[in-house]
């Protein structure tokens, strides 16, 4: 995916708390990897409409089921606040 | 001096005020020019979107009130944080924005200077708490700079003391000391954890049960709000009767159709408000975190309640069900106490009840989750009813705050104010 500015969406129940924490951590990882990305947050109800042209969606396994099949790569993480879990999962997806 | 007057006028528009705050935050973080401009504009838009959502909400609530009164002869109230906060912004926007900003500064200072090393990152709850504090202090007679200073101190204190209060139980939930719980339902969580400790055994965990996960739709808060409101509006419209609804409210439209459309209009309004809140906090919170990371790097982040959900997903479902049952029981017995009737909403009972379930489970297993969340449901219902007089004119809007800390703090502020009068 080199060169292009990525679009990443973090999804949680309300799109207010957990996804914002995710967004801040994602931005840190993106910077460490020397990539560029627009990271936004949204709630599960509007997720399907918002993630249309996103490259990567990050959310929990339960919410990923509700999102269903989408074009974007869906990264699921169990613990929203575990920085390392998120970092590994995201790096794997971006490189893979 | 027209220029001073101009600056004053600009800063007294709440939308611009929050925009200025996020502008400063983005500049301090050394963001690029385009990020600064887009972030500041988005924050202003977020506030304006929120106010637009409030108008939608009020329209629908104005239809509900008369139906409940005609049908049951009661004043019925559906607690919904987004609704009450959005309505409050129409009159208290400036105070709310200023209390939020200075409250963050007080939070950082307290984390720096006291043993309470917590940094509150649940931005929407800071915003809602700032709105509650402006409304209750305003009703108590404060205004202007005094209101902002007292309000900011109260908000900053709440943002370190609530996570500190629940932290012993939070450590039992997470099994570590790294994150704190930053969600203003702490009173219910603490009671749930304490009940769990008294009645149950953490070994007998809810997570040993295998459970269907079919209640997942409840995390979709606008769907859950829509379902609650359809049920409430249908019951109210049937009780009020077709002739009343069609002659007084719907302009001839079938009363059931009208009820369902109004119910979903309310949910749509909540969706708009949440969208606005998201645009406001997603610029301001990262700035706040960036600043606090530099000043108090050792502080623990206090995070929104769903951070507890992965530790005990079954307890979330059990907590929701029993909290909601507590809400239903409260609704039925409230007329005996001559209180306004609080109609239980799915959203507060899911998020706050679910968290109470997780904490009750961590201290007392199944019994703790069941009994703790049931009592939580009763607390947030009676709290909502007792808070209404403290909100002044806002108390007449057929909606109120749904989570326990907003409720007890609002009641406390109004009691203290009475002592001084």
Task: Write structural notes for this entry.
The complex is a heterodimer of chains A (96) and B (421). By secondary structure, chain A is of the alpha/beta class. Helix content of chain A is 44%, strand content 23%. Chain A contains 4 helices and 4 strands, in the order βαβαβαβα. Chain A has helices at 18-32, 44-50, 61-67, 83-95; strands spanning 6-12, 37-43, 56-59, 73-76. Chain B is mostly helical and 421 residues long. Chain B has one domain (13-397). Chain B is built from 13 helices and 5 strands. Chain B has helices at 2-11, 14-28, 33-72, 81-113, 123-140, 144-174, 186-199, 221-240, 242-249, 255-295, 313-333, 346-387, 404-420, and strands spanning 76-77, 118-120, 180-181, 300-303, 341-342. The two termini of chain B are 38 Å apart. The model of chain B has no long low-confidence stretch (mean pLDDT 91). The chains are: A alpha/beta (96), B mainly alpha (421). The interface between A and B is medium-sized, with 28 and 33 residues.
Over all CA atoms, what is the radius of gyration of chain B? 21 Å
Helix tally of chain B equals 13
List the strand order in the largest sheet of chain B. Answer: 2-4-3
Overall tally of domains of chain A: 1
CATH homologous superfamily (4th level) name of chain A: Response regulator
What's the SSE pattern of chain A?
A: EHEHEHEH
Number of helices of chain A: 4
**What is the topology, as strand order, of the major beta sheet of chain A?**
2-1-3-4
What is the fold's blueprint, element by element?
The complex is a heterodimer of chains A (96) and B (421).
Chain A: E1 6-12, H1 18-32, E2 37-43, H2 44-50, E3 56-59, H3 61-67, E4 73-76, H4 83-95
Parallel strand pairs in A: 1-2, 1-3, 3-4
Helix pairs in contact in A: 1-4
Chain B: H1 2-11, H2 14-28, H3 33-72, E1 76-77, H4 81-113, E2 118-120, H5 123-140, H6 144-174, E3 180-181, H7 186-199, H8 221-240, H9 242-249, H10 255-295, E4 300-303, H11 313-333, E5 341-342, H12 346-387, H13 404-420
Parallel strand pairs in B: 1-5, 2-4, 3-4
Helix pairs in contact in B: 2-3, 2-4, 2-10, 3-4, 3-8, 3-10, 4-5, 4-6, 4-10, 5-6, 5-13, 6-7, 6-12, 7-12, 8-10, 11-12, 12-13
